[in-house]
Design goal:
Elements: H1 11-18, H2 28-36, H3 58-72, H4 76-90, H5 93-105, H6 109-122, H7 127-139, H8 143-156, H9 161-173, H10 178-186, H11 189-192, H12 196-208, H13 212-225, H14 230-242, H15 246-257, H16 264-276, H17 280-293, H18 298-310, H19 314-327, H20 331-344, H21 348-356, H22 364-377, H23 381-394, H24 399-412, H25 416-429, H26 434-446, H27 450-463, H28 468-481, H29 485-498, H30 503-516, H31 519-532, H32 536-548, H33 552-565, H34 570-580
Organism: Nitrosococcus oceani C-27
GO molecular function: identical protein binding
Keywords: Repeat, Signal, TPR repeat
Length: about 575
């Protein structure tokens, strides 16, 4: 996919030819501030930008026109240099802004930083200018200078306090130095004054940096000040969940949900966590009540669609997502999950069409990744990898996601040696990335390299002791591929304490008891797992246990019933062939 050339508009030239700044051409941030003053204002009004009185000499006009033409011809370096020079000479914030944006497009961080500094000096009341400069400074670890601008950014923001601090936290979360990032946020005067919005932003930053104890203690301070607010309560539950205290997380929301006045967002968050905990029946009842109360609520419809997908009920799920499209609400989410439904039903062309229809917003990158995965499934692996590598260059801050996705498509194609090499290379620069370690462990297990699989999973568990998925994966691998069954049982038991209603962990527990010869216990756990999730591999395991117990007809019924819903499933077909020869 060839990147489109950067195209300059003639807007600045026309603006300068007009001789003065018009109301329509002022920066959007200033216009927003003015809008806020027409009604009851909660945000600080931002002073109108004052532009310098610059004479439009023939030389300046020639500079701008030549830069504009160069930009249209793809000569980005020349256009950037000209606008940067003109901004320095005129101190016009519009030229500085243009120079900043061109330099960012050209990925010339030094020039972008120089231009952003000019932009801030020329228009100190412009929040966009400050945000651009802070982002650039953080990326270069120039923390002292960045700190000087953060307080200004808070004062200039026309948004609510919570959104402002979340925006700052998001910028700081990408820092290479988590301790410094937290210090910068903690040094803000609003945080020092115990402002609940600043505290919430700090808790969010700590959560993003996986400082879970700090995040929890901070959000508790917010809840004390604002016990009725939804978002801090939801954040507290999510932190507890990530700490492995799933039951406590659910109880923390259930206590609030018992109040009939509990909000829809709180109930939805509780329902989502019930689904993640494997308590699907309880989630179903909650979402049905919400749909009866608010049948056109887009968040409720989205949740119902996701729940239907979880149950592999594709037609009802599609109906919910189509209703969202008709409402014009949660449109990108609806398109994304319609793409996933098409994938699950092996309709690659339809899936790609849905993903391609998402052209902006936070799901755009996810949709692009799924397009690559589907392209690989169609057999065009080189195009899929090239697409992911292009995304990695275009969105460098998310390069780790694209590396994981590239490994995934290699695994799906059965190219395990290439996937292993791919993950090896990625881990050179990020040796403690738990997602990469986990992914490589799964590849190593497929290659029979149990030493690497165990080593990587042990490392994940050392870094994240509450990682139930890693504990379960290690326990299952030991149970399935070795005779270290008691050790396997200990790991799976630890995983189950963290997530007692997870179908895959229950499956592992059933499998290790089968390998230990405890057939009744094995059947009990596997039936519980099947109640939660009609997964082909769980069905394969349950049938094998029933066969070992002498219930061959029961085994055939489990396999055949599951195969009807998962036609052509290789795991089921292999186990049926093995036992019915």
């Amino acid at each position: 996919m060839k990147q489109a050339p950067f195209r300059l508009t003639a807007g600045l030239v026309v603006l300068l030819l007009a001789g003065c700044a018009t109301q329509e051409m002022r920066p959007a941030v200033a216009a927003k501030a003015e809008e806020n003053t027409t009604g009851p204002a909660t945000a600080t009004a931002i002073p109108e930008t004052r532009y310098p009185d610059v004479e439009l000499t023939p030389a300046l006009l020639y500079q701008l026109l030549s830069a504009d033409i160069a930009g249209q011809r793809g000569q980005i370096g020349y256009a950037m240099e000209v606008y940067l020079q003109a901004a320095g000479e005129t101190r016009d914030p519009r030229l500085a802004e243009r120079a900043t944006r061109i330099a960012l497009f050209a990925r010339d961080i030094s020039a972008a930083t120089q231009a952003a500094r000019l932009w801030v000096r020329a228009d100190p009341s412009n929040g966009d200018a400050r945000q651009a400069l802070v982002s650039l400074l953080l990326g270069q670890q120039q923390y002292n200078e960045a700190e000087n601008h953060l307080e200004h950014l808070v004062a200039l923001s026309p948004e609510s306090g919570e959104r402002t601090f979340l925006k700052i936290a998001t910028m700081l979360a990408g820092s290479a130095d988590p301790e410094t990032a937290l210090a910068l946020m903690g040094n803000l005067s609003a945080f020092q004054a115990n402002d609940p919005d600043a505290l919430y932003g700090y808790a969010y930053l700590a959560l993003q940096l996986k400082q879970l104890d700090l995040a929890l203690s901070t959000v508790e301070r917010v809840i004390i000040q604002r016990p009725e607010a939804d978002r801090p309560l939801i954040m507290r539950a999510r932190i507890l969940q990530q700490q492995g205290r799933e039951e406590m997380a659910l109880e923390s929301l259930e206590t609030v949900i018992e109040n009939e006045e509990a909000s829809i967002p709180l109930r939805l968050a509780y329902g989502q966590m019930l689904m993640e905990a494997g308590q699907v029946a309880k989630a179903e009842r909650l979402f049905e009540q919400l749909e009866q109360a608010q049948p056109e609520n887009p968040d409720v419809l989205l949740a119902q669609g996701l729940l239907a997908m979880e149950r592999l009920e594709y037609k009802p799920a599609e109906d919910y997502f189509q209703r969202l499209l008709k409402l014009g609400q949660n449109v990108d989410q609806a398109r994304f999950y319609l793409g996933r439904l098409a994938e699950l039903q092996s309709n690659a062309g339809k899936a790609i069409d849905w993903y391609a229809s998402i052209t902006g917003g936070r799901l755009m990158v996810d949709a692009q990744v799924r397009q690559a995965v589907v392209t690989a499934q169609q057999g065009n692996l080189p195009a899929a990898r090239q697409h992911l590598q292009l995304l990695s260059r275009k969105f460098p801050t998310q390069a780790d996601r694209f590396q994981l996705a590239e490994g995934e498509i290699l695994i799906n194609a059965g190219r395990y040696e290439e996937a292993m090499s791919h993950y090896d290379n990625a881990l050179h620069s990020r040796p403690d990335d738990t997602n990469l370690l986990y992914a490589r462990a799964l590849v190593a297990e497929n290659l029979g390299r149990l030493d690497i699989a165990e080593q990587d999973l042990q490392r994940v568990i050392t870094l994240e002791p509450s990682n139930a998925e890693a504990l379960n994966a290690l326990g299952y691998t030991l149970a399935d591929r070795t005779r270290r069954l008691e050790e396997a049982l200990r790991y799976i038991s630890r995983a189950m304490r963290l997530k007692p209603n997870n179908a895959f962990i229950l499956d592992s527990m059933g499998w290790v008891h089968y390998r230990l010869g405890n057939y009744d216990k094995a059947e009990k756990y596997l039936r519980e797992a099947m109640e939660l999730r009609k997964d082909p591999e769980i069905a394969a395991h349950l049938g094998e246990v029933l066969w070992a117990k002498g219930d061959r007809e029961g085994a055939r019924q489990v396999w055949q019933h599951t195969l009807k819903m998962n036609q052509g499933n290789k795991v089921l077909l292999e186990v049926m062939q093995r036992f019915q020869e």
